[in-house]
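Thread: quick sanity check before group meeting

JM: Hey all, I'm pulling together slides for Thursday and realized we never actually wrote out the predicted structure for the chain we discussed last week. Dropping the sequence here so it's in one place. If anyone has concerns about the input, flag it before I start.
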Amino acid sequence: SLYTSYRVQVVFMRWLLAKFLAQHRGVRNRKGLPPLTIDKILKWADGHHKRTGKWPTLGSGAIYEQPEEDWRKVSQALSRGIRGLPGGSSLAKLLYEKRGVHSRSARPQLTSEQILNWATAHRKRTGRWPWVKSGEIHEAPEESWRKIDSALRMGLRGLPGGSSLAKLIAKHREK
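JM (edit): ok, ran it. Output follows.
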């Protein structure tokens, strides 16, 4: 039909214009972006960390080594599985898996046994069982008793939910 022919021409003209602008004017062609690799992303992240003392986040902006790229777009590519990446990940997950960087969206799973081991160590060290306001967990400095209590209550990080730090410790003490 006439409409289909017109539509094909429009798509073709847009493709030609994008290609021309990319080659002759340096305009980024979103349809023809170069592939990314996990190694390349980690190299950029390591550089960011070395320069700033912090790991990149979605809000870190442009990537120093590749200014036309930014961390949010890289994370989207990791998530969507585009630009040669497998998908199902994110910048936070990648940095946790490959560099051990903790973030809100990439917190490690917990078990009741692990929490009780930390609680027992806290009791040996202080003479008291921990409670919500006991602060940072000595054996896991990136954790706090308040975060653990929230995870137990809400069923986060692999825990079933409906419990609390106090309930878990009380059940343990009964045994």
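AS: nice. The longest strand covers residues 66-70. DSSP finds seven helices and four strands in the chain.
JM: adding both to the slides.
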